[in-house]
Fold this sequence. Notes:
Blueprint: H1 3-22, H2 27-50, H3 53-70, H4 80-103, H5 107-118, H6 128-138, H7 142-153, H8 158-165, H9 169-188
Helix pairs in contact: 1-2, 2-3, 2-4, 3-4, 4-5, 4-8, 5-6, 6-9, 7-9
Amino acid sequence: MSKEKSNNNLNVVETNLIEDLKNPKTQEKAFRQLVSTYKERLYWHIRRMVTSHDDADDVLQNTFIKVFRSIHNFKGDSKLYSWMYRIATNESITFINQRSKKAGISSEELQDQLVNNLKADVYFEGEEIQLKLQKAIATLPQKQQIVFNMKYFDDLKYAEMSEVLDTSVGALKASYHHAVKKIESFLIN
C-alpha cells in the first residue's frame, strides 16, 4: 500500500472517529476506542515531562477528560493526535507549574527533585545512563525539554511539532540544537 493511500485511510478512520465522538449515540464507544488507541503514546509523552508514573497517570486522566469535554470544539485544523498531544503538553506544564507553586520552588527546582526521586520509582526500569540523561533533560528550560522529548523520544517531525506547539519549524530546530548541546555538555562533565 502506498504511503499516500495509507494516509488517506488514516484520515478516513480519524474523521469517522471524530464524528462518532461528537455523536451522543456513539460517543461512549468512540471514546473508549480513542483512549485505547492513544493512551500509551500520550502516557509516555506526559511521563517524560512529569517524571513520576503516578503523576503521569493523573495528568493523562486530566488530558482525556479535557479531550472528552472539548471534542465538539475540535475544528479539524490539525490531526486529532496533534490536538490531543497539545492538550497533554499543556496539562503537563500546568501540573508542573501548580506543583512547584505549592512547594514554593521554581519549576526547574521541581524537575530536579522529580528526577532525583526517579531512582526510587518502582516503575523506573532505566539504567544509570538513562538516569543521567533524565537529569540532563531536567536542566533544560521547559520549552527545550519539550522539544527535545518530542524529537528524541517521540521521533516527531518538525512539522508535526510545529502543529502541536504552534511554533515555527526554524525555532524548533534551534531549540532542539541548543538542547542537544546542553545535554552533551552535561553528560560529558
